[in-house]
Amino acid sequence: MQQIASPPRTGRLSYQNAIAIALVCLGCIVTSVPAKATEAENEAIFQKKLAPLLRTYCYDCHGESDGEGDLSLAADDSAEKLIQNRGHWMRCLTQIRLGTMPPADADPMPASIRSEMADLIEQLANAVDCVQNPNAGKVALRRLNRAEYRNTIRDLTGVDYAPAEDFPGDDVGYGFDTIGDVLSLPPLLMEKYLDAAESIMGQAIHTPPPPLIFHTQEDPLKLIGAAKWNGKNELTIFSNGTVGLEIDAPFAGNYTVTIVASGTQGGDEPVRAEIRVGKNKKVVEIPETEPTEKAASFQLGRGKRKIEIAFINDAYVAKKYDRNLILHHVEVRGIESERVATTLPDLPASHRVLLFQTPSRDRSFEQAATAVLSRFASRGYRRPVTQYEVSRLVELADSVRSGGGSFEESMQVAMQAVLVSPYFLFRIERPRKPSADGAMPLVSEYELATRISYFLWSSMPDDELLLLAYRDQLRDRTKLFDKVGRMILDARASRFVENFAAQWLQLRNLDNVSPDTRIYRGFDDEIRQAMRTETLMFFSEVMKKSMPIPTLLDADFSYMNEPLAKFYGIDGVRGDEFRRVSLSGTSRGGLLTHASVLTVTSNPTRTSPVKRGKWILDNLLNMPPPPAPPNVPELEKSILAGSLRERMEQHRADPACAACHNMMDPLGFALENFDAVGRYRTRDGKDEIDASGEMPDGTTFRGAEGLRELLANQRKDQFVRCLAEKMLIYALGRGTEYYDKCAIDEIMNTVRAKDYRFAYLIAAIIESDPFQKQGSRE
């Protein structure tokens, strides 16, 4: 994943202090939310105000039985029915606000009437009580997506594990890959998680190489001194005596001499043998008459050693008993003594951090394992682990040790178990019920810490967030927003830029577009990457310096390096490093003139006003056009003639196409001065470019500058509300519903009161009920 460079650090502390102070001052903002009207009041509004307007402007085409497009508005003859069919009324609302309905051939609707009708439909369709415990919504169980998994692994273990090549791709909902409803866990992905956990912990924790093993065995009949004793398949020593063998010990370690022996018993004691290595002696008793293993262990150094086996208690009484030692097999095994294969400075940093305690003379294996696994699992699960959970992990580690594994190996296996636990792979929140008075329950402090960290950092909470949660201080406004202000300025906030902004602006599609380089010379992969970097650094600048949100549309600066500046035709930029560049006096300004946006909304061989217009409606105004009606035949290219604008006008002549294209095309044509890779031009081939546009509601504009003015000023609230809703969807991991209108209204009140500055948008989302509370999916 590309690392997005932060803007220059000049004045960093002052920005941090300003943002922290600004966020804390949110407490000074007092917002008012209108109370929900009663059902009777809603019905009165419908019958007395909205219904007459609908009869005048809508029912001719959308009557009760013959509604065009299979849409009957007259069938919803009460406020209750309108609310029940909220979905198609919200689509109607979009058409009314865009001016595409009523159609051009119908009686004209005055602007004041259009605004009144839109407000009435929204008021009734989104009728929800914003005072008496509005529903906070509920998020489906959320799996970590690939980016979150990689970041969490890096922050937890210190290992940068890239799953992109191995893991299946994440599904996308509502434009983002953070949506709980689509983040499933197929069996293949579970197998990948198991493999990944083993690989990650193998990199994070160093394990010493296994000890060396020595092994030899000898036929007793071939032992030194065996010739004097009787035997065919075994060696019978019938009087006190000694046999032996020599080994060349390859290392210092523990050597075990194992004999398979039996005895002919007699007298008042069993057969005894003495196993000797130099001055070290160990006596073994052999009371058995059948072959049995007996062993003695010795610590030996390197070098040649003689091992002797002596029969030491011979006894004989004529005609009563004869005590003898019988040897069936002799074997010697050695295992190398523990050695330090890696000195402390050579251990990976992750090893030293994770294994901060190890067994010693004063600390048992269980004590060390409990300390290490308690901290690791608590951080991995984003909450304190229970005693039972720790004991299970310690038991698992102990089973590895019992099988001959080292402390490091036992920790590797136990930590792998953490990494494949549902508590790690999923963001689990304990279900709660509303209180007796219907108040929506708050998520826990630890769950709130997790929501904040994955929102801004796409990763687990850091120790400071977890400490605030532990102390029940995360809802202390001063402490919370001081922390959030520092999180925005932290290097990890680049993950928010990468994951939110790149998806919101559809920059991830930039890798998949293929402009025809025979037409658009100068475009290559270096420029492709530079386009992307420009937009992400620009977004990062607006966010980290808490500029007014409309700056995204009308900024007079951007970030470029020399290759991109030359591509744009801008002089005075030298070197490959990106830096802030003034756009004063140029045709550029804001996201709409970024080559990244212009390229992803074009075709390989030409611009696409349709794609660009749809992109603006979707991502800047939150007014996605309806899908194309079914069974509309594609126009034959042979009947289209003239400039691109003329051909598009011919296309819109088809009534089936006009409704949507009347919304999209004017917006797209405003950007026609920029070609399919974002370079400025005044002509398209032999045709002079006409970048004027007129919306169905009569609003006119010309070129990118006029479009910026329209969006950043005349429709500023609509743009900011669109961004707020997109960001709320990304943060919550679910699509917004009608009952989220209360929260979005409050967010907008907060942002509007503070000059639309970016930090207040982030803070207002974190303070909103859907972010702080748990509701239902109704």
TrEMBL record:
**Pfam families tied to this protein:** CBM60, PSCyt1, PSCyt3, PSD2, PSD3, PSD4, PSD5
Q: Where is the Carbohydrate binding module xylan-binding domain?
A: 256-339
Originating organism? Aporhodopirellula aestuarii
* Stretches assigned to the Cytochrome C Planctomycete-type domain: 58-105
Name the UniProt record assigns to this protein: DUF1592 domain-containing protein
Domain DUF1588 per the UniProt entry, residue ranges = 588-684
Q: Which residues form a coiled coil?
A: none
Q: Which residues form the DUF1595 domain?
A: 369-429
Q: Please state every residue range assigned to the domain named DUF1587.
A: 142-205
Q: Where is the DUF1585 domain?
A: 697-771
Organism superkingdom: Bacteria
> Which residues belong to any copy of the DUF1592 domain?
444-570
